[in-house]
Amino acid sequence: MLAILAICVKTTNQNTSMINKISQINRDYNSSYSTARASKPKLPIALAASTLFLLALVFVFKFYSPSQLDSPAKQQVVSIKLPALPAGTDDIIEPLDVINHSKQSSTNALKTTNALNNNVSKHTVKAGESLAKIFQTQHFSPSTLYKMMNSGKAAKSLKSIKPGQQLSFIKNKSGGFLSLEYQIDRIQTLKVSKTDAGFNTELLKKPVEIATDTASVKIENSLYYDGKQAGISDKTIMELANIFGWDIDFALNIRKNDSFALIYETKFIEGERIENGQILAAEFINRGEKYQAVRFVDKDGHAEYFSPDGKSMRKTFLRSPVDFARVSSRFNLRRKHPVLNRIRAHKGVDYAAASGTPIKATSDGKVVFRGRKGGYGRVVILKHGQKYSTLYAHMSKYGRYKNGSHVKQGQVIGYIGKSGLATGPHLHYEFRLNGVHRNPLTVKFPAAKPVAKNQLASFKQQTSPLISQLELAKQTQLALN
User: Fold this and answer.
1) Cys-Cys crosslink for 225: which of 82, 221, 310, 320, Cβ 3.0 to 4.6 Å?
2) Same domain for 193 and 228?
């Protein structure tokens, strides 16, 4: 077709060129070409025929496509046979996996959207703030607090919140209570969640790794200062004082060049050291006299400190009722009274300390008197069995124990003050045996029970390695010095 069309176009161009030439010749030579004028009628006829032929071709190509020229009945569908799947793969349909992933993504997206609709509110506990006030600030109802506090034993720990601690609340989009998290310490976290049945309480504990560490210190300034310089925590220093507190008066008897060594636990969470644990073994040399103690856990799980030969470090009485206080006046039967300005027997020991310093019961006993007593001011008297009694005077305020209450050794019975005849804040402490005053700094106290005979073998097995490690720690420190 294209070849025919090209020929027609060429013919038309030739005819047009010829006509133009003839016209030019006639203009220039009218008289010379009379024969050309006679043949002129034949050319327009050929031009018209060519034009009609071209129009016919254009009409055919415009209104008839190749698909229309063929009959639909003659069109055929060619089938392609796909290869069969291997046996046992009938259930493998990959497009369904794509659909499942799409569903899972949609579900996760929905959960994320719901989480974003919940509000997280963090509250730092302020001084004097109660849990009821905090819930009121968060716009939770009193009934929510009541039900939550009765949801389990662990929830009771919320009663012990302290200033500076943080509570984290999660609320729904309308402000309602969903959950609470309270970090009790670096190990334990309390989580309370609201459920359809009420409240669910969980106490979450991080896994703790326990290792041991050693320290050996020579006292140049004070027990506390030199212990801190050696990297020992306040808690461990206080525990050390409590272990030897029945034999050594840390307020009075510590001297320069005294020394101590100890083995103690260290606790780690995820590789980070968080705190010190129990002292496992310790030695204290005071004024040249050596005291050693090891921690022994009996078959019932009860832990106590003993000397290496199995005698209890715990005595029936503490040597001092105040931690690290200064002795301002000793036991003296011919002392001149600072207020009355006359000779008056001082039948006790005075410990000077800041007002409000806690006063501890030196032994288990019963409160037989709590009240004012002349120049003693505010006084507490404890009775310890049939023979012993102790008196604590000049208190600023009392502890929570009242007349008739039973107290344990080390429990706080009051706070240092200057009530009665006193020139400054201090504690006046008396010790009586069968009603007779004795010097609390020198009197010998009865010891507690030693290791039971049927547990001596277990005691030796536990404690012998600790004593060896303690000696090694001392030698290492001596070599470093």
Assistant:
1) 221
2) no
Question: Do 461 and 472 fall within a single domain?
Answer: yes
Convert the pLDDT of each residue in 57-72 to its tens digit. 665 555 554 444 444 4
Beta strands in 353-419 (DSSP E): 358-360, 365-372, 378-384, 388-398, 406-407, 412-416
Q: 158, 176, 205 — which closes off a domain? A: 205
List all residues 6 or more positions away from 424 whose beta carbon is below 8 Å from its beta carbon.
352, 418
Percentage above 90 pLDDT, the chain:
39
Can you give the residue range of the structural domain that contains 456?
Answer: 207-315+449-481
Last residue of a domain, one of 205, 232, 247: 205
Token pair for residue 433?
């045996």
Token pair listed for 196 = 């359809």
CA distance 455 to 351: 40
Position 246 in a domain:
yes
Mark whether 330 and 433 lie in a shared domain.
Answer: yes
Looking at residue 82, its pLDDT comes to: 44
Q: Is residue 305 part of a domain?
A: yes
401 and 468 fall within a common domain: no
- 241 alpha carbon, distance to own chain's centre: 30
More confident residue, 330 or 162: 162
**Number of C-beta neighbours around residue 65 at 10 A:** 9
Has residue 417 been placed in a domain? yes
Predicted pLDDT of residue 22: 44
pLDDT tens by residue, 377-409: 999 999 998 889 999 999 999 999 999 999 999
- This prediction has a pTM of 0.56
To the nearest 10°, report the CA torsion of 437, 442, 448, 453: -140
Question: How many structural domains does the chain have?
Answer: 3
Instruction: Tell me how far apart the alpha carbons of residues 379 and 397 are, in angstroms, rounded to a whole number.
Output: 9
Residue 427 maps to which CATH number?
Answer: 2.70.70.10
Q: Do residues 214 and 288 share a domain? A: yes
Residue 291 domain flag: yes
Q: What are phi and psi of 176, to 5 degrees?
A: -80, 155
Element (H, E) at 349: strand 349-352
373 lies in the same domain as 350:
yes
Contacts made by residues 403-407, CB under 8 angstroms, sequence distance 24+: 403/367, 403/368, 403/369, 403/370, 404/366, 404/367, 405/366, 405/367, 406/364, 406/365, 406/366, 406/367, 407/361, 407/364, 407/365, 407/366, 407/367, 407/382
Going 30 to 34 to 36 to 42, the CA torsion angle's sign is positive
- Hey, which residues does 277 pair with through a beta bridge? none
Same domain, 331 and 434: yes
Q: Which has the higher per-residue pLDDT, 171 or 100?
A: 171
Q: What is the mean pLDDT of residues 269-290?
A: 92
